[in-house]
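Agenda item 2: heme C complex prediction
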Amino acid sequence: MKQITMLAVAILLAMGLSAAPAFAGSDMNPCNPCAMKQKINPCNPCSMKKKMNPCNPCSMKKSMNPCNPCSMKKSMNPCNPCSMKPVKGQWGTPGNQSIRPHAFDNFQQAAAYGKKLWSDEKLGTSGVACLSCHGDYELLHLKRNQNFPHFVKMVGDVVTLDQMINYCMLNPMKGKAFDKDSKELTAMAAYYRAYRMQYRKDHSK
Ligand code: HEC
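Presented output:
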């Protein structure tokens, strides 16, 4: 008899407990992230104030946040391409892609090659050289002291120096445009810079 009573109690208890899953999908179930009001749900990253939410990368000070690439010293950050030091005696940095085979060791070399090209009447097919029109700083408007890109009337557009050089190659020179990564285009731009520096020297007195 005693055993039967125990069994009955156990059954009653089990029935009582089976009421618990009744709130499984309800608003009060702490395991259901949708259940609570968004504002008090600790799993909802939007619920806390930005400043207190540890999951928000903006919550920490930049300098303390390990996920912020700016937090490390530049020289220690492996993701910062500036942290690599070029190896002396080698072209570029090992492992990096190059834009072309090595061409110049210094600016003067590039400008000297550029000067040759600016003077070359065979560079295009019209029989003139760049310096045929631009000798004595003509038509370059160096007095305006503008950096590229800027508006050029003849082009009717804003152009970079490289684009301007190629425009004059195609039109007055009736030649071919230089490849953007070519040592020729670098040399042409280098001579333009050297020419401009010379102009400033000549006109500073
Ligand atoms: C037949 C004459 C002629 C030849 C040759 C010529 N150019 Fe030009 N160039 C011009 C004219 C005209 C302008 C535009 C002036 C303007 O619109 O203000 C110009 C503009 C330029 C400019 C821009 C000047 C600015 O306003 O900043 C550059 C740079 C330039 N030329 C470089 C070259 C180079 C490099 C070559 C040779 C590949 C060359 N030019 C050949 C006539 C020439």
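Discussion summary: Residues 33-75 form one domain.
Owner for follow-up: CH.
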